[in-house]
Amino acid sequence: MKNTQISASKYRGRFAPSPTGVLHFGSLVAAVGSYLDAKSNHGDWLVRIEDLDWQREVPGAASEILRTLERLGMEWDGDVIYQSQRSETYQDALDALNRQGFIYPCVCSRKEIADSNRMSVGGPIYAGTCLKNPAPISRPHALRIRTSNDRIEFNDILQGSYSQKLKDEIGDFVLRRADGIYAYQLAVVVDDAEQNITHVVRGADLLNSTPRQIFLQQLLGYPTPQYLHLPVVTNEKGEKLSKQTSAAPIDLSNALMQLISALQFLGQNPSLEMSEGNISSFWQWAREHWQADQIPHS
Ligand code: GLU
Fold this sequence. Notes:
There is one protein chain. The chain has a single domain (12-294), classed as HUPs (Rossmann fold, 3-Layer(aba) Sandwich). It has ten helices and twelve strands. It has helices spanning 25-40, 61-71, 87-99, 110-114, 129-132, 166-169, 184-194, 210-220, 255-265, 279-289; strands spanning 12-15, 44-49, 81-82, 103-106, 119-120, 123-124, 142-145, 151-156, 160-165, 173-176, 199-203, 226-230. The radius of gyration is 20 Å and the shape is elongated. Mean pLDDT is 93; it is low at 1-6. Glutamic acid binds at residues 16-18, 50, 188, 202, 206.
C-alpha cells in the first residue's frame, strides 16, 4: 500500500518537535517517517517548533534541532514557524470556542484535580467541579473545554480504527493554563489547519491525543488531516526515548548510519551497500522505496 488516501489537494506534511532537548533517535524516526511519507508522495514537508512551554524549553535546542536536520540532508519547505510567536492566533481560536459556549474557567488546584477517582491515559479525569460551580474569574484560572460523549472515531493509516468518548475517557481538558500558556492540543490544531497540513505522521504516543484534536477541528470548522502514527522507540526498560529517560543525542559524526537505522526501525529494507554511499544517495533510495505499509504497528 502506497498511501492511497490522498485527497485532491497537494500532500502537506510536517515535523513538529518541542525544543526540550536535541534530536535523539526517537525524534529522528518521527522526522524521517514524516519526511519520507511527504516526499514519496511529491508533497511538502514543513517544520514547526512547538516552543509554547518556556519552562520545559532548553535554550538553543530549537536551532540545534534545525541544524541537525540540515546536516542530515532533510530540507524543509517554507519558513519554520515558532508557536511562541503565535499567541494571538491561539487566543482567536479560544475566543471562537468561547462564543460557542464551550469554554469555562477552572480554579482547581493540582491536588484537587489529582483527587479525581477516575484515571485516563493522560492522568486523572477532571471531575468538572468548576463547570458545576462556576469559578470566580478574578482568581488565576485555567480555561477548559466542555467535552461530550459523542464517539470520535478516525482511521489511522497504520494503526487502523481508533475511537474515544472524550467525556468519559479524557474529561474536559485545558486549552490555556493558569500561567497563560496555550495547550499543545489547541495550538497543534490551529497550526495544522493554518498550514494546510493534509497528513500528520508522528509517534504513536500521540494516538490518544488525536480524538481531542479532531473534536477541536470539528468545533472550529477545520478539516481533519489523515493520521499515521509511527511506532514509538523505547529503551531497554521499555520507556519512550525522551529527555526524561536520558536519550542520547543523534551522533552527527556518523549521520548516514543514524539514517539507515531509522529507516530499518521503520520497517524499510535498505541494502547493505547503502552504508558505503552518502546522504544524498540514501535519500534518493529511501524516497523511491518508501512503503508505509511496511512500518511495524507498534
Ligand atoms: N511537539 C510534539 C513532540 O515533540 C509533537 C506534536 C505533533 O507532532 O503533533 O512530541
